[in-house]
Amino acid sequence: TDKYDYNLQDAVKAIATYRPELKLNVTENSSFNPNVAQTNNTWKMLHNFEMLGQTLSIDQVDYAHFWTSRWLEPDPLTEDTSAFKTDYQLTPMGYALKVWNQFLKPKMVNANTTGTVSSWASYDPGDRSLSILLLNKLQTQQNVSVTLNNYRPKSNFLKPWVLQGATPESTDVTWNRSGSAFAWGDKIQLKLEPLSVTAIAIDSSKVE
User: Fold this and answer.
1) pTM of the shown model
2) Which of 33, 51, 116, 154 is deepest in the core (most CB within 10 A)?
3) What does each C-alpha distance from 45 to 5, 90, 125, 154, 160 come to in angstroms?
């Protein structure tokens, strides 16, 4: 997993040392490289999703703004700076934001992974709902077992949402409910599609 948040971690250390009451506003957040034109495709979408996840996981971050979407090129898919096409449909980069906006809860909670899959979890203390987000940047399927700490899903059968591109270079991506996940006790078993983000919304019947 790439680490994109090193500059934010420097800011977090400074805040802890000098002004612990401060919060961070991230006003330019994106995986695009300034002055380097790159295609708005699946590969950049997955990196943008990962960068947003690392940013939102920092407790001190109070606000994150995608950069830029103020310049609409004649063909925005040739540039990775925009979340929108000229008809205001989402580009692959935009879909990464859509997933986070749809599944982000009031509180990010700790999520650890082994192997090549990256994970995040977001929790609502009010209704005890939980979002799990899994990133597979490989071009092969991945079998995944998720272990939940102090949390039990209400249902044994979960229907994930999947954001996916056919190839790293593809500018056509799909976002729909696909596949299934099986929950038993504190375990969830599922298969991740290649080059995908999988999002699972869970209601709890028991929080210990």
Assistant:
1) 0.91
2) 51
3) 17, 11, 30, 32, 19
